[in-house]
Automatic annotation (TrEMBL), chain A:
The keyword Transmembrane applies. InterPro entries: ABC_transporter_permease, MetI-like, MetI-like_sf. It is a multi-pass membrane protein. It comes from Halobacillus campisalis. Residues 85-301 form the ABC transmembrane type-1 domain. Keywords: Cell membrane, Membrane, Transmembrane, Transmembrane helix, Transport. Belongs to the binding-protein-dependent transport system permease family. It is found in: Cell membrane. This is Carbohydrate ABC transporter permease. The chain crosses the membrane at residues 29-55, 89-111, 123-144, 175-195, 230-247, 280-304.
Automatic annotation (TrEMBL), chain B:
It is found in: Cell membrane. The chain crosses the membrane at residues 12-35, 74-98, 110-132, 138-159, 194-216, 244-265. This is Carbohydrate ABC transporter permease. Gene3D superfamilies: MetI-like (1.10.3720.10). InterPro entries: MetI-like, MetI-like_sf.
Length: 315, 279
């Protein structure tokens, strides 16, 4: 009698186990579904549509015309495309390379055991990152205004440099935009490097000190190699971000953003094609070219960075 | 105690303090200068030596901002947009994260890798079709249109899966199941209370991302009544003769709320950066 009851209980438990499994499966699919539904509509479909559009002539309203590779040849033969790519790369280099180096130095200082007030320094150095790109571009836009009396001109006057017309000169515009990118992102990189430095076990340095390695040697042979994942991450993010630059130059230049070419970036070129000139086909072709450039540059930079670390380790 | 002794001021570190102090001043100066200019007439900008002390036009300049752009409407739009997007992203991410961390279903790993792969697609690849889609739906100039792109947050799912698998014990879920709890009930009564810190981290990431984003909002919001703060501020700079006092007053009042929130919760902000990128 008792054993029958037990058997029944066991079998009903088994049954509920099975249906439990099915329920879990169902819940699993149900809970991950929203992402995939939204991604399908606003991620995948536009990406595929973009690739189709790149081979069409279309102004967004009328019929699409298949034109083969013509959009690509139009873009690639447009001097303004190459100028915008050149601008993007130059501003990217000037804005991001110093950012990573200074970030590393600041993080190293903040991580020194004997330094006090680190929380104050950390918060102030990180604060620019909280500010929006638009706000930064507007403040720098006034600082680097085209007036002769711009504060930036006053500052360079200390060094005996003549006033610059920051918004309309080739290097003035590039320098101002690079500087605002630099200012906004230094703190971000500092925080990431600081987290990296704090993850390095202290006893490695103690052992190296006992072995007679000086601070520079310790930095080159312990800090840099162990920090490599963090450096790779920041180089990757900075490369991808730099090639997508849009808000800073657009807002900095204001009404002349799409009419002058000193600081036009690739995304601005794309935006102008699509929304000012109504040429969705060439804009889509530009988007695909930019995607290829971003993937290539990110791969190249990641490869270079990891290579540099390896050589140092071997030496 | 030993920590305290270690951290005593050492004269040898003076150059380090100078470098850090210099970096701090350069980081803060634009904020201070923005405040100064927001309180000065536009003409103060041309004075030599430059004006570095606040003047008396704080209210007047802001009044001019209010006359030029619908500032409070834009502030409200921004807060509404950021809050709704953040709540939906937290919901989607925590549900998916829960499923990936605690359920087994066929194709789970494949689906998870798919989500990670979507991070690689750069946002402006789809810009034109996305704009076309939103315009076909009649969502231009609406917060729906401005917000829908931000609902995709693969990083959020990744963070939530990580956090839930580490901090929600399997035994607790098993016990709840024996008591006859449904999966959603488990999510609501057991998982949600445990993952509050992860909500704070992801919430800050999403909120500040949407707050500061420009390209997409600039593309779909054309009507001033639908402007978010960033689009409204950018429109202040669109004439050749800009009143700098007015311009920086707008930037100042748009920046102050976020800076205050940051100063109060700075530990959360800073850890959201490291957790969001290192994991």
């Amino acid at each position: 009698m008792e054993s029958v009851e037990k058997q029944q209980r066991v079998s009903s438990a088994k049954e509920s186990r099975l249906s439990e499994k099915k329920k879990d499966m169902l819940s699993g699919y149900l809970y991950v579904a929203p992402f995939f539904i939204i991604f399908g509509i606003i991620g995948l479909y536009p990406a595929v549509f973009s690739i189709v559009l790149a081979f069409q002539d279309w102004n967004g309203l009328g019929e699409m015309d298949f034109v083969g590779l013509r959009n690509f040849t139009v873009v690639l033969q447009d001097p303004l495309f190459w100028k915008s790519l050149y601008n993007t790369v130059i501003i990217g280099l000037m804005g991001t390379a110093p950012q990573l180096i200074v970030g590393l130095i600041l993080a190293y200082f903040l991580n020194m055991a004997a330094v006090r007030f680190t929380n104050f320094f950390r918060v102030t150095i990180f604060m620019p990152y909280i500010t929006s790109m638009v706000a930064v571009a507007l403040v720098f836009g006034v600082f680097f205004s085209s007036n002769e009396t711009a504060l930036a001109n006053y500052v360079i006057g200390w060094f005996g440099i003549d006033p610059v017309s920051w918004k309309t000169s080739e290097w003035g515009a590039k320098f101002a935009i690079s500087l605002m990118v630099f200012w906004r992102w230094v703190g971000y990189n500092t925080i990431i490097y600081l987290a990296g430095l704090q993850s390095i076990p202290k006893h490695l340095y103690e052992a190296a000190t006992i072995d007679g390695a000086n601070k520079v040697q310790q930095f080159m042979h312990i800090t840099i190699p162990l920090l490599k994942p963090f450096i790779l991450l920041t180089v990757f993010m900075a490369t991808v971000g730099a090639l997508q630059l849009f808000a800073e130059p657009t807002v900095f230049l204001g009404s002349s953003a799409f009419t002058r070419d000193e600081a036009m970036t690739v995304v601005m070129y794309l935006y102008r094609d699509a929304f000012n000139l109504g040429s969705f086909g060439t804009a889509s072709a530009t988007a695909i070219l930019l995607l290829i450039i971003i993937v290539g540059a990110a791969a190249l930079n990641t490869w270079l960075t990891s290579g540099a670390g390896r050589r140092k380790k071997g030496a | 105690m030993s920590e305290h002794v270690k951290k005593r001021f050492k004269p040898g570190n003076i150059p380090v303090y100078i470098a850090l102090g210099f970096a701090s001043i350069l980081s803060i100066f634009p904020f201070y200068w923005m405040f100064v200019m927001a309180t000065q007439p536009s003409a103060a900008y041309n004075s030599i030596p430059p004006t570095l002390l606040p003047g008396g036009m704080l209210i007047e300049n802001f009044q001019k901002v209010l006359d030029t752009i619908p500032f409070f409407q834009a502030m409200w739009n921004t807060i509404l947009l950021c809050s709704i997007v953040t709540i939906i992203v937290l919901l989607i991410s925590s549900l998916s994260g829960f499923a990936f961390a605690k359920f087994s279903f066929p194709g789970k790993n494949f689906l998870f890798i798919c989500i990670l792969l979507t991070m690689v697609i750069p946002p402006q690849l789809g810009l034109i079709p996305q704009y076309y889609l939103i315009s076909q739906l009649g969502w231009l100039d609406t917060l729906f249109g401005a917000g829908v792109l931000f609902l995709l947050n693969p990083l959020g799912i990744f963070l939530m899966r990580q956090y839930i698998s580490e901090s929600v014990p399997d035994e607790l879920i098993e016990a709840a199941k024996l008591d006859g709890c449904s999966n959603f009930r488990i999510y609501r009564s057991i998982v949600l209370p445990i993952i509050k810190p992860a909500f704070a981290t992801l919430g800050i990431i999403v909120f500040t991302l949407v707050w500061g984003e420009f390209l997409w909002q600039f593309t779909v919001l054309r009507d001033p009544s639908s402007y978010t703060l960033q689009v409204a501020l950018a429109s202040l700079n669109n004439s050749f003769n800009v009143d700098f006092g007015m311009l920086l007053s707008g930037v100042f009042w748009a920046t102050v709320p976020l800076i205050l929130i940051f100063l109060i919760f700075n530990k959360w902000f800073i850890s959201s950066i490291t957790e969001g990128s290192i994991k």
